[in-house]
Write a structure and sequence with these properties.
Largest interface: A-B, 19 and 20 residues
Distance between the termini of chain A: 61 Å
Structural class of chain B: alpha+beta
Largest sheet of chain B: 5 strands, antiparallel
CATH class of the largest domain in chain A: Alpha Beta
Structural class of chain A: alpha/beta
Distance between the termini of chain B: 28 Å
Number of strands of chain B: 9
Number of strands of chain A: 20
Number of domains of chain B: 2
Oligomer: heterodimer
């Protein structure tokens, strides 16, 4: 019934790992061909693959893991999806229902463990309710503010000897859950008036624009108004990265011009973003002159950290579409003179410090150069799946994302080990696209076993390993705040990644000189059917800048190791 | 400020732990909590008293509403309401003190619901501060045991919390 329900839900791939509690389900998988199962090497990777599929397509990914250790290994992946509001259905096996609570072999209370990191979870207590529960799980995961849903199924609920009537519901209704489909018209009208009256406006947009499929509306509204746009880490690609109106990412490692523009603005239109601590910096000093319009599908995100002057609860797409209509119909248009002055100011900031790093004369590579090369070689059109650390910030800053759903990273939880399985999940579903995993020698080793899965299922992703022989972000903080005491932030015995890649049946490439980089990268991407592990040696002393000064305002930034605003 | 929040939730296994879990995860405070089924067997009614500024209370009600098992939420303290709590308190009652306890209980309209030669057990119903006042009125009387039900509340007038 589980497999049939997944098939009826339209699921093509599921990612998982078998075990005792799931043997009935795995037997059912064996005896059909509609739903394809991908065998990972560690359950965490299964959840990240499902998660990345969802990030690239907007539809819920599915992971299948057994009870006990299978379920606990999936916890990191579930929490990753939860923090970034990613739709996912995770089916966990459970011991037989009469054994629950008796510390049975491979028993763990997955309902209890997962509760704080899921949108909802279900435990199956009668086999005949499996189809309805699975339908509800997808419904909840994919609507409203999306999120992961766990379905915990005791082994006896899937016993093949018992037969039940099966019917997969076309839709489900829950009396206590009705996601909102549009915003409050009065609020939208008020917001639009305020928007049109602004003299120093900024559009600040996040992951809600990506998952809410509202990129087209955002672009249209921004173009009509000619207002500057900044994206959060989760929102990159929501507005074209090469567009003149794009002023870069904002926040802790945001661009100088984005953080300056936010600080000096008189109006912030926040769309699908949550004023996260990595964006706002010190709350008491946040954007002192700005009025705030906040559009979010989740009422709990509004006025959570920063009070909104005009809150609008609703899906980004519907609300922006309504705003576009109002702006088009309005007699009032943006104040052209004020806007001209505002753009001159922004352009001045942009030329002063915008997106620059220093290179020296040696042939040593800067990590930023590698990302810029990746952007060039892939025409800004690749799916870039990142791990967590300095390389993630460099990728966010220097890869020019022109389309939504192409930038796939663990923003909220910051999960090292996310990148490779994420790239695999994307490649599986978009076999013709260029898929890069931007990682570092620290992160990649957290799920390196998946190179084996890549071999089994022919997943020719390109691994861009920015090797600085240290946990760069940790080291940067140690440099800045702990007088360069590098406590456990370096690795003394790195493996030979080339040999390792080859041992798994892939291609390894070592790049040490910038002059070799472009040719090597082009060669790697030309190998369409091979996974290439590019081990790229970069300057180990580089820091990510700008970096906001802790507890300061948005404009308080370190711009280089010695220069600050 | 103290708030009394009433919640209708699905009468299902695990529903209560979602509510309690939410409070601990988000560092909200629970002063008292009561829960019992309602006239509709599919629903439980839960009353929680909590303390927080407006921002925190707003977040609490929003997050409660987000829980899939929660059907309805109301902050009773936003309007006219009645609150009641039940307390049973076991007291050492011997000698001259025995009559004094009886008198105090009468003043508070408490009832003595269990008696032994050396103890009284008093039942008292009222708003929480009335129960607190009774305890302080007992003065030096030695309290052997206190059990309080936690607050239940209902809106005044025709307003109801129902489906």
């Amino acid at each position: 019934m589980v497999v049939r329900a997944l098939h009826d839900e339209g699921v093509k791939y599921i990612y998982g790992y078998p075990g005792g509690a799931l043997l009935h389900v795995y037997d059912a998988l064996f005896r059909q061909e509609d739903v394809q199962h991908i065998l990972v090497r560690h359950e965490q990777a299964a959840t990240h693959m499902a998660d990345a599929y969802a990030r690239a397509t907007g539809k819920a990914g599915v992971a299948l893991v057994t009870s006990g250790p299978g379920a606990t290994n999936a916890v990191t992946g579930i929490a990753t999806a939860y923090m970034d509001s990613i739709p996912m259905v995770v089916i966990t096996g459970q011991v037989m229902s009469h054994l629950i609570g008796e510390d049975a072999f491979q028993e763990t209370d997955m309902m209890g463990i997962s509760r704080p990191i899921v949108k909802h979870n279900f435990s199956v207590s009668r086999p005949e309710e499996i189809p309805t529960i699975i339908k509800k799980a997808f419904h909840i995961a994919q609507t409203g503010r999306p999120g992961p849903v766990v379905v915990d199924i005791p082994k006896d609920m899937t016993s093949p000897t018992e037969r039940y009537e099966y019917e997969y519901p076309k839709s489900v209704k829950l009396r206590s859950y009705s996601p909102i489909s549009r915003g409050h018209s009065g609020q939208i009208k008020k917001a639009t008036d305020l928007l049109l009256a602004a003299k120093r406006p900024v559009l600040y947009t996040g992951g809600g624009v990506i998952m809410g499929n509202a990129s087209d509306e955002l672009i249209q509204l921004a173009r009509m108004l000619n207002y500057p746009v900044t994206n959060t880490l989760m929102g990159l690609g929501g507005f074209p990265g090469t567009d003149r109106q794009f002023i870069g990412m904002l926040g802790m490692h945001g661009s100088y011009e984005a953080n300056m523009a936010m600080h000096h603005s008189d109006l912030i239109l926040a769309v699908g973003a949550r004023f996260d601590d990595r964006v706002t910096n010190g709350l008491d000093k946040f954007c002192p002159t700005a009025k705030i319009i906040h559009i979010d599908i989740d009422p709990a995100s509004i006025s959570k950290t920063i009070k909104a002057d005009i809150p609008i609860v609703g899906p980004a797409q519907a609300v922006l579409a309504e705003m576009i209509e109002l702006v088009a119909a309005s007699k009032k248009q943006p104040d052209a003179a004020a806007l001209k002055t505002w753009w001159e100011q922004i352009d001045e900031w942009r030329t002063r410090h915008g997106g620059r790093y220093r290179t020296d004369d040696s042939d040593k590579m800067k990590p930023q150069q590698v990302i810029e090369m990746l952007s060039k070689v892939t025409n800004g059109d690749a799916y870039v799946c990142s791990d967590v650390g300095q390389h993630q910030m460099f990728a966010a800053q220097y890869y020019k994302f022109n389309k939504p759903n192409r930038w796939i990273n663990s923003g909220g939880l910051g999960t090292m080990g996310f990148g490779l399985p994420a790239a695999m999940g994307v490649k599986m579903n978009f076999p013709d696209a260029d898929v890069a995993c931007v990682t570092g020698e620290g992160s990649i080793q957290m799920n390196i076993q998946e190179l084996s899965t890549c071999k089994q299922y022919d997943l020719p992703v390109k691994i861009i390993n920015l090797n600085n022989q240290s946990l760069g972000m940790v080291r940067q903080w140690q440099d800045m705040n702990y007088e360069s005491r590098h406590s456990h932030s370096y690795m003394k015995s790195l493996p030979d990644f080339i040999k390792l890649a080859e041992a798994y049946g892939h291609v390894g490439m070592k790049v040490e000189k910038y002059s070799d980089l472009e040719a090597a990268m082009r060669e790697a991407f030309a190998m369409k059917d091979r996974l290439v592990f590019m081990d790229i040696y970069v300057d180990p002393f580089e820091h990510v800048y700008p970096m906001q000064v802790p507890r300061g305002s948005m404009r308080d930034m370190w711009l280089t190791k010695t220069e600050r605003t | 400020m103290r708030h009394i929040i009433s919640v209708l939730l699905e009468n299902e296994p695990g529903a209560l732990s979602r509510v309690v879990g939410l409070f601990s995860q988000r560092n909200y405070n629970i002063e008292s909590l009561t829960v019992a089924p309602t006239d509709d067997a599919t629903l439980s009614r839960l009353t929680v008293t909590t303390v927080g500024d407006d921002r925190v209370i707003e977040q609490i009600t929003k997050h409660l509403n987000k829980l899939i098992d929660v059907v309805k939420v109301v902050d009773l303290t936003e309007g006219e309401h009645i609150e009641r709590e039940l307390m049973m308190i076991k007291l050492k009652a011997s000698g001259a003190n025995r009559a004094e306890i009886k008198r105090t209980a009468d003043i508070f309209r408490g009832q003595i619901i269990d008696v032994t030669p050396n103890t009284y057990t008093v039942q008292l119903i009222g708003a929480s501060d009335k129960l607190d006042a009774f305890i302080s009125a007992l003065g030096t009387t030695s309290i052997m045991e206190v059990v309080r039900s936690g607050v239940s509340g209902i809106a005044r007038g025709e307003k109801t919390l129902s489906l």
